[in-house]
Amino acid sequence: MSNPHTLKLFNLLPVGSNISTWWNFGSMLMTCLLIQTATGFFLAIHYTANIDLAFSSIVHITRDVPYGWIMQNMHAIGASLFFMCIYTHIARGLYYGSYLNKEVWLSGTTLLIILMATAFFGYVLPWGQMSFWAATVITNLLTAIPYLGTSLTTWLWGGFSINDPTLTRFFALHFILPFAIISLSSIHVLLLHNEGSNNPLGTNSDIDKIPFHPYHSYKDMLMLTILITLMFMILSFNPNMMNDPENFSKANPLVTPQHIKPEWYFLFAYGILRSIPNKLGGALALIMSIMMLFTPPFTHTSHTRSMTFRPLMQLTFWTFISTFLIITWSATKPVEPPFTEISQLASILYFTFFITNPIMGLVENKLSNYSC
């Protein structure tokens, strides 16, 4: 039987009557965060942050600890599902103009950056071949910073190469940052309920609102069931689907993998990095590929909020999504023609979206005025 106090709380959170399934990804992200926190705490109990023992401790967890293989694979698969949901959540916000709720959007983009940092530190912890070399490549980008780069890299490593102190620091950061994510997520949700949700039409949701329960809580439950079912299907039939084969070998600084690449959810930024021959230019492009998400609330010029009624922006949006996927794909290929040229063209189109957004808004305003 439902708790009357819980139902009363749900009824105190009225939402727009026309919000679609795309609005369920927020609750799915909260579920992913809970799964990652719970499984991560279990893994931390058995993990050893030492370069001689880290890889062996992962093997110990998967082979000797009861149900350890489930926890380890759930944590790895959960990270991929987390990023699938968050990228979809961001794409929905861009399409429907949710970024005009500035505080909600800015807190969410900050969450993305902290989440990416946490995932990167976690990817290094198994101390496999790809973990070690991906960390080497990414942390070496700091050396591109004039004057301070070498000092910052040495400070991050805790020495003059990636070694024991580096692994200890990454483990500490990977353990602490989720608490920051949980705190900022709470603020993100509070800001959302303070400002109210957007809707597909981009109109004022205050005109027609309905109680959250049962109209939207049931949709949340359905989407969460699909998410958890998908996780357990991957876990049961192909648990290593998200893992790089190179990472099943212990890290060896003397043997470089043929093709170094991070996890798939970092490939779009890595592809942009690789497309620029200059090291500093590539590092700046990588940073800007994420920081550009802060700009839409301040560059929106259209009188219409949602892209539902903006055919020109719809074309630009789907071009942006396509370039994101193309960059991700090309980053898995060797650094040679034609993949280099494809990455460069796709990277230009990626940044063009954020530049054309305000221009398209002004053009659409002009066209709508003429039609009137």
Automatic annotation (TrEMBL):
Heme b b566 binds at residues 89, 188. Binds 2 heme groups non-covalently. Coiled coil: none annotated. Its main location: mitochondrion. A ubiquinone binds at residue 193. It is a multi-pass membrane protein. Residues 202-371 form the Cytochrome b/b6 C-terminal region profile domain. It holds the Pfam family Cytochrom_B_C. The chain crosses the membrane at residues 22-45, 76-98, 104-125, 132-158, 170-192, 221-238, 280-299, 311-330, 342-363. The cytochrome bc1 complex contains 3 respiratory subunits (MT-CYB, CYC1 and UQCRFS1), 2 core proteins (UQCRC1 and UQCRC2) and probably 6 low-molecular weight proteins. Component of the ubiquinol-cytochrome c reductase complex (complex III or cytochrome b-c1 complex) that is part of the mitochondrial respiratory chain. The b-c1 complex mediates electron transfer from ubiquinol to cytochrome c. Contributes to the generation of a proton gradient across the mitochondrial membrane that is then used for ATP synthesis. Belongs to the cytochrome b family. PANTHER family: CYTOCHROME B. This is Cytochrome b. It comes from Bitis nasicornis (Rhinoceros adder). The lineage of its organism: Eukaryota, Metazoa, Chordata, Craniata, Vertebrata.
